[in-house]
Design a protein that fits this description.
The protein is mostly beta strands and 694 residues long. Helix content is 9%, strand content 47%.
Length: 694
């Protein structure tokens, strides 16, 4: 045995241990195992090591965790709290990892980004105590409205009246949107590359554009945030990568041609402006993190931005690109090796890059990265989670990995990884209360017969898992709604509401009070299905989705009210179709929950687009925000705000005082704000903020 190991044990073992972990037993195990690590032949593209090697690692791990020994050189991997993830303390080991992937991709002719598959892995389509004070700085000033949504900016700095906020999943975690307001000014993301962000004054009910924040030719904004007197702009900036295809893959025509067709890559940019003077925003910091913007969250003054950065191992110069970089105010640096975690089993060459910026205090972001893709982001004030779904793992099964991060004074820190069977629908499929993580999945079961693998939708099942902070499954409900697909999920307190669909819409009510033994309390089957669920009051849910009959969906949409006050007998008490089955109706809320607008404790608005149809002798068509009223267990339609016939996109909406503002894209014109009086419901004005064709 190496002397430094023995000396370290002799020096550190000054405390009483269980008999199985006394010094003599550990030394004996180490001496017996040290020279007996045997590698098995490769199978399923991954090395399998005999249990004797695992025993050796277990002993070393136990000693290291127990005493904090610093064994080995600086290049040795640091094992995370969860199995299967390592952290190398130097770039050399990361380069070695990509050398292996480069050789393996060449040998196996894998397709990663090209064709969206790696071993059949496809891109999908987004601690016991509360987070430290630094992670939720400013949250005490957060004004919470009726549905648990929040106003992260706090009271209006301009003394304005009540105003809308972005519809978020968690009340104390803000999400980026294309429209924000501080109670007087509207901040609008216009559509298109190089399209500016507009600032519109609404004083005295009149709309007046007071500033445009211009962008570079290759920049396109996707989201904005407002925090006090700061405006945060996020988006993607395209860059052209020189095609250097040659060398190793030059003789492979298929790979060569695939790579030839992909030369444009995108990075994520973040810009922070001081908007004390709304007419002259002043940029205070900016940075670019490599990879396409995946999602973001803001807690207090801290912004968390996630991008997915692809390393092209088909390029002979791949080593130049295998460490993601951050460019801050013109200075470029690599993400520190100690801040990069690597999922051992992954064959992906895509990183999830996480940056943290305190918009009030910091000029430079703090970085963390994990080599393992991010399909969805979920964040509460108590933890941040990334999910990655492998649709075809080595057992021919869909598996979702969950990466748990904790907030720290310096950003986020990777803690551990967990796995569950199946794939998730969206971010609402996940929830975390600081002690337990909950996730709902759909699993397509497969049948393996020799080299043949088959899958039948009739064997599809749905599951709900509860994991502890070590990302270990402690409770589960499996095999729900065989043959159906999860369409929406909502976690409310200790209850989970899961909607599945095949021909009818089962709404499952699952009690999570006992995390070890979650229990299905009730089930409701109705025509159609809800693609978005929203808690509107204690014991009541709003459902937005497809209308239908007992034989399946029709082309209409509906808004439903579910009474779940008795979890054993959930009821759809009211269902309001948009066109009574007379037209094709579509709502983007199914895919963008931020378009659901809370107007008051009793009113909300949902956007719908319809084809022409007749109703009561009138030809109805176009795009509308429909306003609904909830009153003491009843739901009714109030009014339809007509957004215009030439609308090609309903982009977002909010309100200030008694005025409702909707942002739309107009055919051959540009982006426009349309306003309505919430008392009279009459249209009060419009303002074009950006012209597409000049």
């Amino acid at each position: 045995m190496k002397k430094d190991v023995k000396n370290a044990l002799n020096e550190k073992m000054q405390v009483k241990l269980p008999e199985t972990l006394n010094k003599e037993n550990i030394l004996s195990e180490l001496e017996n195992k040290e020279n007996n690590i045997i590698e098995m032949p490769k199978k399923n593209k991954a090395k399998k090591i005999l249990p004797i090697a695992a025993s050796f690692m277990l002993v070393v791990g136990l000693v290291g965790m127990y005493f904090g020994l610093g064994l080995g050189d600086k290049n040795a991997p640091v094992i995370g709290e969860g199995t299967g993830v390592v952290n190398y303390q130097s770039y050399d080991k990361i380069y070695d990892r990509f050398d292996e992937l480069h050789k393996e991709y060449k040998k196996e002719n894998f397709f990663d980004m090209f064709g969206n598959a790696v071993e059949g892995e496809f891109a999908n389509n987004d601690s016991d105590t509360a987070a430290p004070e630094s992670a939720v700085d400013g949250s005490d000033d957060t004004a919470t409205n009726m549905n648990g949504q929040s106003n992260p900016a706090g009271p209006s700095a301009n003394g304005g009246s009540s105003h809308g906020t972005t519809n978020t999943q968690e009340k104390d975690v803000d999400e980026g949107d294309i429209i924000k307001t501080d109670g007087r000014y509207l901040y609008i993301v216009n559509s298109g590359t190089k399209a500016p962000v507009s600032i519109v004054d609404t004083e005295n009910g009149e709309m007046k554009k007071v500033a445009d924040i211009t962008l570079e030719l290759n920049e396109s904004v996707t989201d904005i945030y407002i925090y006090n007197n700061y405006l945060v702009i996020l988006g993607n900036c395209d860059k052209e990568e020189e095609n250097t295809q040659a060398g190793d893959f030059a003789d492979d025509v298929e790979i060569y041609n695939t790579y030839q067709s992909v030369v444009a890559w995108g990075d994520t940019f973040v810009k922070v402006y001081d908007i004390t003077d709304k007419t002259a925003p002043e940029k205070v910091t900016e940075y670019v993190q490599e990879g396409t913007l995946k999602s973001s969250r803001m807690i207090g003054s801290k912004l968390y931005t996630i991008s997915t950065y692809y390393v092209n191992v088909y390029n002979k110069n791949y080593r130049d690109d295998c460490i993601p970089e951050i460019e801050t105010n013109g200075a470029c640096e690599k993400v520190p090796a100690g801040c990069i975690s690597i999922v051992e089993e992954t064959k992906s060459t895509t990183y999830a890059v996480i940056t943290t910026l305190d918009v009030e205090k910091d000029k430079e972001p703090l970085c963390e990265a994990i080599l393992g893709e991010c399909n969805q982001l979920y964040a509460s004030s108590k933890g941040l989670f990334l999910s990655e779904t492998d649709y075809w793992d080595e057992k021919n099964q869909e598996t979702t990995k969950i990466y748990r991060f904790e907030y720290t004074d310096n950003g986020v820190e990777f803690k551990c990884m967990g796995k569950v069977a199946g794939f998730i629908n969206n971010q609402f499929s996940m929830s975390y209360d600081g002690e337990y993580f909950r996730i709902a999945t759909t699993l397509d079961k497969v049948t393996v017969d020799g080299d043949s693998v088959s899958m039948s939708m009739s064997d599809r099942v749905n599951n709900l898992y509860i994991l502890n902070n070590d990302m270990e499954i402690v409770g589960k409900v499996e095999d729900l709604a065989k043959g159906e697909l999860i369409k929406s999920v909502r976690f409310v307190g200790n209850m989970a509401y899961v909607v599945t669909f095949r021909q009818t819409d089962p709404l499952f009510v699952i009690d999570l009070t006992d995390p070890i033994n979650p229990t299905v309390k009730g089930e409701l089957k109705i025509p159609g299905f809800s693609q978005y669920l929203h808690p509107i009051a204690d014991g009541y849910l709003i459902g937005v989705g497809q209308d239908g009959t007992e034989t399946g969906v029709n082309d209409d949409c509906k808004v439903s009210l579910f009474d779940v006050t008795n979890p054993y007998e959930p009821k759809e008490t009211i269902s309001i179709p948009v066109s009574n089955g007379k037209a094709y109706v579509y709502t983007e809320v199914a895919y963008n929950h931020k378009l659901y607008i809370n107007l008051s404790e009793s009113d909300f608005a949902v956007p719908f687009s319809t084809n022409d149809y007749w109703s009561n002798g009138k030809l109805l068509q176009g795009n509308h925000y429909i306003r609904y009223n909830f009153d003491n267990g009843n739901l009714s339609e109030v009014v339809r705000y007509d957004l215009g016939d030439d609308v090609v996109e309903i982009r977002g909406a909010t309100y200030i005082g008694n005025t409702f503002y909707a942002v739309v894209g107009k055919s051959m014109r540009g982006v426009e704000i349309v306003s309505f009086d919430l008392n009279t419901n009459e249209k009060t004005g419009s303002l074009q903020t950006y012209e597409w064709i000049k």
